[in-house]
Write a structure and sequence with these properties.
D-Maltodextrin-Binding Protein, domain 2, alpha/beta, single chain, 2 domains, globular
Length: 327
């Protein structure tokens, strides 16, 4: 119940405080930053982060942003398992940072953007003329129709797909629907959701479970799912929590139970970031309403800045204006 209240209050805060702007002191603080800046990020952040990085380098020409896209959990494991150097990590699910990085590899987490699940397709997809919000699940189960999804253990879109199928079973009152959907077309599971776009483009698959923002960015057609299914609405948080799935945990042999909840992105700076001042400058630029968040919203990912952070006390002082304490 507390979590549901926090989501609702956070959305109200967005409406009231979305015009945050940097102060002269903050601009002066970052004036001399330079060097390489390594950014690991979710595949669904590829398009907006490319634009953010370009605008950031225009503002700070002595910094070179080096981006690596992967599933959010795969991004985190580059840090925890492979000891890769990383200055900024942007996750499609803020809880990836909480579960896999904090406290050993990161200290704080700021939630910054929303999204929703859709069923994307092209004009060449089989049954594209007939698919809609009330029959998509029936069409995907047809033997001559193929669809793709991402790996739940590597990518939040993967486990969100599983949760979406469970919520669809409830919404359409069709016992066993989730299991039938999850058992079909498993050969088309890929490490991250954007890996499926090429398969969709060449017609190897007809449909894909993906984020609305990615469908928009790549000019795809899509089916808007009911709010009781799409993991978009804070008002449905309690309903989403009925869906649960198990994924791999932070240590070998361990697992995590993921519950359905409204879709929220998170960002952090790892504890051992090689270029921490440039990292703070990048996060600040990303979260500013007239800079990075304007780019995010233009690419279909609504801003949640500022919103609540359980780790607010550990957020760097120059970034606290983008978060709200839960206390």
């Amino acid at each position: 119940m507390k979590q549901n209240v926090l989501y609702s209050l956070a959305y109200c805060a967005v409406l009231l405080l979305s015009s945050l702007a940097p102060t002269d002191a903050i601009a002066e603080e970052f004036a001399d930053i330079e060097g390489d800046l390594v950014v690991f990020h979710a595949g669904s952040l590829s398009v907006p982060f490319r634009e953010v990085a370009s605008a950031f380098m225009d503002e700070y020409p002595k910094v070179r942003v080096l981006r690596e896209a992967a599933g959010s959990r795969a991004c985190a494991r580059k840090i925890t398992d492979l000891n890769r150097a990383c200055d900024v990590l942007g996750s499609a699910d803020y809880t990836v940072i909480d579960a896999l990085l904090i406290p050993e590899h990161a200290s704080w987490n700021i939630r910054f953007a929303a999204n929703e699940m859709v069923i994307a397709y092209t004009e060449h997809s089989r049954r594209s003329a007939d698919i809609g919000a009330e029959n998509w699940h029936q069409i995907l189960l047809e033997s001559d129709v193929a669809y793709g999804r991402s790996d739940p253990n590597a990518d939040p879109c993967g486990y969100r797909t599983v949760l979406t199928t469970q919520l669809a079973e409830i919404h359409y009152s069709e016992p066993g629907l989730a299991s039938r959907l999850q058992k079909k077309d498993t050969r088309h599971i890929r490490p991250k959701e954007t890996d499926l776009l090429a398969l969709l483009e060449v017609g190897a698959i007809d449909y894909v479970f993906i984020y609305r923002s990615v469908a928009k960015q790549h000019a795809l057609k899509w089916v808007d799912l009911p709010d009781s299914i799409n993991l978009k609405s804070p008002d449905h948080a309690a309903h989403y929590a009925q869906a649960k799935t198990t994924i791999t945990g932070p240590e070998p042999g361990t697992t995590i139970t993921k519950e359905g909840e409204p879709m929220v992105y998170g960002i952090t700076i790892p504890n051992n970031a090689p270029n921490p001042r440039a990292a703070q400058a990048f996060v600040s630029f990303l979260l500013e309403h007239d800079n990075g968040m304007a780019i995010m919203e233009r690419n279909g990912q609504p801003s949640l800045v500022p919103t609540f952070s359980e780790s607010y006390d550990r957020v760097p002082s120059l970034l606290k204006r983008f978060a709200i304490s839960t206390q």
